[in-house]
Design brief:
The complex is a heterotrimer of chains A (288), B (234) and C (391).
Chain A: H1 3-31, H2 38-56, H3 60-81, H4 92-113, E1 129-132, E2 136-139, H5 140-162, H6 164-174, H7 176-180, H8 186-211, H9 219-233, H10 238-258, H11 262-277
Antiparallel strand pairs in A: 1-2
Helix pairs in contact in A: 1-5, 1-8, 1-9, 1-10, 2-3, 2-4, 2-8, 2-9, 3-8, 5-6, 9-10, 9-11, 10-11
Chain B: E1 4-13, E2 16-26, E3 31-36, H1 42-49, E4 60-62, E5 65-66, H2 72-77, E6 80-83, H3 95-104, H4 113-119, H5 121-125, H6 136-148, E7 154-158, H7 166-181, E8 185-189, H8 193-199, E9 202-207, E10 210-216, H9 224-232
Helix pairs in contact in B: 3-6
Chain C: H1 23-30, E1 32-33, E2 50-54, H2 58-80, H3 83-108, H4 117-134, H5 138-160, H6 165-183, E3 195-196, H7 199-205, H8 209-236, H9 238-248, H10 250-255, H11 260-286, E4 288-289, H12 291-294, H13 297-311, H14 317-332, H15 339-354, H16 358-367, E5 377-380
Antiparallel strand pairs in C: 1-2, 2-5, 3-4
Helix pairs in contact in C: 3-8, 3-11, 3-13, 3-14, 4-5, 4-6, 4-11, 5-11, 8-9, 8-11, 13-14, 13-15, 13-16, 14-16
The chains are: A mainly alpha (288), B alpha/beta (234), C mainly alpha (391).
The complex binds adenosine-5'-triphosphate and magnesium ion.
Chain lengths: 288, 234, 391
């Protein structure tokens, strides 16, 4: 395979991984907790879209209009009703509660939908591609996913740096106690953050389900991809997340060019190399 | 009815008890100083008053209503503000963002961003710089401005002079006098006894978690010997 | 997560717990009167007081006796029971060992790993390779598998120790994924489809099936007992005290000069080695390994985490309680597919929210019961000066 093709495909795949990573990065940035159920929530969104497209007979893109708000509400309630109670000095409660959620979501999906492999159909968009000179072909759908990642990151950047809600998020991340002195109710703010994170997660889940097949057990590996993108990019860095996703995507497409089994392994190895050589990631968070 | 008062206020950090039945009251429009040695419980008192440390409902009253169990963000909404010890500016926010955040989530009032810049003109020049790059005095001004933007009825100030040069301290207290003159009730925690007595109408002296002396700051009324005794417990 | 002080009522008798024979000697060794220790004379009102350092409780001594009876019963099981219970108890035994190890790692050293299946699989594959390729006797291969896992865990630790908290958890998981994907690429290890032990190797344990089952059963028991004893010993050692200090406050213990990094590394490597032995044993029992079964996150980590969390993380007794509860639930809900996992997940979530130290933590605080006393207690002998106790 052509080197250019590998790089382009890897970059576009990186867009999907950046989308996976946004929710994880946002909640870590604000609440300093890692949601182990993140990958399973991506899968849950995929199944939710499946149900919505089937019952309403609408396109997956239209289904986003249902699934994304639904996941915002789910995130808000999850944080407000459950995860806020786990916040404190010890890392064990948030870690183990989200871990428990992960297992619950996986197995409930398994009971409800069975172990079959699924995919969201979008007709010929799945295979449509653009022909570039020099025989390079770019899939239209991967391009859409990459654009979506750019738009999401841009929107998040705007939210965090140009709005009062964003100021509140950054302030609470710095010093939650003093944020309370600004009249900010941290429990509400955390719930909003999780709602927003899950809205992005829902988008990522639906796009992923159009792009590749999924089943109830596909959550954990999505968590790992998201995690690798976040760490490669540098913890808490917004655009670093995109870079991390792209590095992971390129590593995987190089691996896939060697042999299909090497795709994921190559991504993991790239992650390990960066972890050892540059533990703060390629794009360490400096001041924000 | 006092604006803000405590009634047998007790506060704990884990197993450690920091306040033992503290009774203070703050009337509308006055400036009250709280003095005391290190570790006497002054900061703890302010933190309990604004709800950062929870207590029994009736131990803290605002307009006579029990508020001891309310969270801090609720008390801020009801018109109490705190300039915390050590300033506690948000390090990822610029000067202006720090100031804005003070009023972002609260009803607008007389204090606006331009008015804060008028009070502390040098902050206007540094509005876009990260808050942590400012000098200590400027940081203290940001902390005060941020609290003022919540348009408090009562402003609690914890050791404004901490680590600042005397000339800066004088400037800050001069500005604070303007704030008091505009009708805001002030509670000032201060290590510097003379400065505290000069700026306030009344004072409380704390020792080991209790009020050891209280009185008016009027010219000759403060008995220095009694104060020394109340301050150091000698 | 500070521990509750043990009630004084149950600590009245100054004895070391387990070694009944050496009790008196060790008591004398550790006891002293304060007047022996040079008279500072700083508090004249205090009468000379004598004290002993004791770690046992009345309940722990009762428990030791019960444990002895239980062990004898279990050891003699092959002579009076059939294969069904033996197989179940062997499984319970290796799960208990895994749970104790994970508890040491997460509950005491604060290293919440979600990747212990890396060492289970590594141990299993090492045993298969050593016995098949080099003709090593399976029992020797068990030990060597542990060594292999411990060795491999060192570079792994150097990488994943760069991650903190929850990121550490996911990092260890990535390592396990790498191992799994890597092993699947090695044709000599059966690639993606797996690998079976040859009958000759199996027969080398014991010629007939009955004896083999008995030997493996006893090994399972021995592993569970040895791992529990080892974890207990580690916790009572200097390292163990350092661990408790780290858990209670990393910053404070660092300022006291406790080298948290090296202590954590030590625990990580020891845990990995033991996990490797157990992994090797599990697949010696199963006779077949594949990348998916060897590095199964659900079997070797998820279930184990649930046992520990529900039973009581950060307690020696918790893994035992959790293991028993898990097997109870599994048998009870056997016909309901994965519902028992859903139920376990839900129980773990509730436990983490309501009673962070699990069922055992609740029992301990409610009834003051402690079966594995870890902290030393100063017991003031009757009729001497006023008491103080330290941990
Ligand atoms: N977070 C905390 N945890 C435990 N104890 C605390 C904490 N904060 C304060 N204390 C203790 O409570 C007591 C009162 O502290 P406080 O900070 O209120 O004193 P202060 O009068 O403000 O002293 P200073 O002049 O040094 O600011 C002290 O003994 C202090 O050690
Ligand atoms: Mg103070």
């Amino acid at each position: 395979m052509n080197v250019m093709t590998i790089l382009i495909q890897g970059t576009l795949l990186g867009g999907l991984y950046a989308l996976f990573a946004i929710g994880l990065s946002l909640t870590f940035g604000i609440m300093r907790v890692v949601n182990i159920a993140h990958g399973d929530l991506i899968t849950l969104a995929a199944f939710a879209a499946l149900v919505v497209t089937d019952t309403l007979a609408i396109s997956p893109f239209v289904a986003l209009g249902v699934v994304v708000p639904l996941f915002f509400a789910l995130g808000y309630l999850l944080q407000r009703g459950l995860l806020n109670r786990t916040l404190g000095d010890s890392i064990l409660p948030p870690l183990l509660v989200t871990f428990g959620l992960s297992v619950i979501i996986q197995n409930v999906l398994l009971e409800v939908f069975g172990a079959n492999i699924r995919r969201l159909p979008v007709g010929n968009l799945e295979t449509a591609s653009l022909q570039l000179p020099a025989g390079i072909a770019i899939g239209v759908f991967p391009l859409i996913v990459f654009a979506a990642a750019l738009i999401c990151l841009g929107a998040l950047q705007y939210l965090l740096y140009r709005t009062r809600l964003g100021r509140a998020f950054r302030a609470t991340s710095d010093d939650p106690e003093t944020a309370e002195l600004m009249g900010i109710d941290n429990r509400h703010l955390y719930a909003l953050a999780m709602g927003i994170a899950l809205a992005f997660t829902a988008l990522a889940g639906v796009l992923f389900a159009i792009r590749t097949t999924f089943d109830p057990a596909s959550g954990p590996i999505r968590l790992i991809f998201a995690f690798e993108a976040v760490i490669i990019g540098g913890l808490g860095s917004l655009w670093g997340t995109l870079l991390g996703g792209v590095v992971l995507g390129i590593a995987q497409s190089i691996g896939a060019a060697i042999s299909l089994e090497w795709q994921i392994l190559a991504g993991h190895i790239a992650f390990m190399i960066i972890l050892v050589l540059k533990p703060d990631g390629l794009f360490p968070r400096t001041q924000d | 009815m006092s604006l803000l008062s405590t009634h047998g206020l007790c506060a704990h950090y884990g197993d450690f008890q920091a306040l033992f039945g503290v009774d203070v009251y703050i009337e509308r429009g006055e400036t009250v100083a709280v003095i005391g040695a290190n570790g006497a419980g002054k900061s703890t008192l302010l933190r309990a008053m604004i709800g950062l440390l929870p207590s029994a409902p009736a131990m803290v009253r605002l307009d006579g209503e029990p508020v001891g169990n309310l969270p801090a963000h609720d008390l801020v909404r009801r018109g109490v503000a705190l300039v915390p010890e050590g300033r506690r500016l948000f390090r990822s926010l610029s000067v202006e963002e720090n100031l804005r955040l003070g009023g972002d989530f609260l009803a607008p009032g007389a204090w606006t961003l331009p008015r804060v810049y008028e009070l502390f003109p040098r902050l206007a020049e540094r509005r876009d710089s990260p808050a942590t790059l400012l000098s200590g005095g400027e940081q203290q001004m940001v902390a005060i401005g941020r609290a003022l933007l919540s348009n408090p009825r009562v402003l609690l100030c914890d050791e404004l002079s901490l680590g600042l040069a005397p000339i800066i301290v004088r400037e800050i207290y001069a500005r604070l006098a303007t704030v008091a003159a505009s009708g805001t009730t002030l509670v000032i925690v201060e290590q510097d006894i003379s400065r505290a007595l000069e700026s306030a109408d009344r004072f409380y002296c704390m020792q080991k978690g209790r009020v050891s002396l209280a009185g008016a700051c009027g010219t000759v009324t403060v008995d220095r010997a009694a104060l020394t005794q109340a301050y150091f417990g000698l | 997560m500070s521990r509750l002080p043990e009630p004084t009522g149950s600590t009245g008798l100054p004895e070391q717990t387990h070694s009944a024979g050496s009790r008196t000697r060790s008591d004398q060794h550790e006891s002293a009167t304060s007047s022996d220790r040079g008279d500072q004379g700083d508090s004249p009102t205090l009468r000379p007081m004598s004290y002993r350092v004791a770690r046992s409780t009345r309940s722990s001594r009762l428990f030791s006796a019960a444990l002895g009876v239980l062990l004898i019963t279990l050891i003699s099981l092959p002579w009076w029971a059939d294969n069904g219970p033996m197989r179940l108890i062997a499984e319970m035994a290796y799960f208990l060992a895994l749970a104790q190890l994970w508890n040491l790692l997460a509950g005491y050293a604060g290293l919440v790993s979600v990747g212990q299946q890396a060492f289970v699989g590594l141990g299993g594959y090492t045993l298969f390779a050593l016995t098949d390729w080099y003709g090593v006797h399976p029992l020797w291969a068990l030990a060597l598998a542990g060594l292999m896992a411990a060795l491999v865990s060192v570079p792994v630790a150097l990488a994943v120790f760069r991650l903190r908290g929850a990121y550490f958890a996911v990092g260890t998981w990535v390592v396990a994924e790498i191992f799994q994907l890597f092993v699947a690429q090695v044709p000599r290890l059966g690639g993606g489809s797996g690998y079976s032990l040859t009958p000759a190797i199996v027969r080398s344990i014991a010629a007939d099936r009955g004896t083999r089952d008995q030997v493996l059963y006893w090994i399972a028991l021995a592993l569970a007992v040895a791992v529990t004893a080892a974890v207990y010993a580690v916790l009572r050692s200097r390292h163990g005290l350092a661990l408790t200090a780290i858990r209670d406050s990393e910053r404070a213990s660092r300022s006291l000069g406790v080298d948290t990094w090296r202590t954590k590394l030590f625990i990580y490597v020891v845990t990995a080695g033991c996990t490797g032995v157990i992994g090797a044993f599990i697949f010696l029992l199963k006779l077949r390994i594949s990348p998916a079964s060897g590095f199964d996150v659900n079997d070797w980590t998820v279930v184990v985490i649930f046992m520990v969390v529900i039973g009581g993380i950060g307690t020696m007794e918790g893994p035992i309680v959790g293991m028993l509860l898990y097997f109870g639930l599994r048998e009870w809900l056997a016909d309901y597919g994965s519902w028992y996992l859903i139920l376990l997940g839900a129980v773990a979530v509730v436990v983490m929210l309501r009673a962070q130290r699990g069922l055992w933590g609740w029992v301990e605080s409610r009834f003051g019961l402690s079966l594995f006393p870890i902290r030393r207690q100063l017991v003031i002998l009757p009729g001497t000066g006023q008491g103080e106790s330290r941990e």
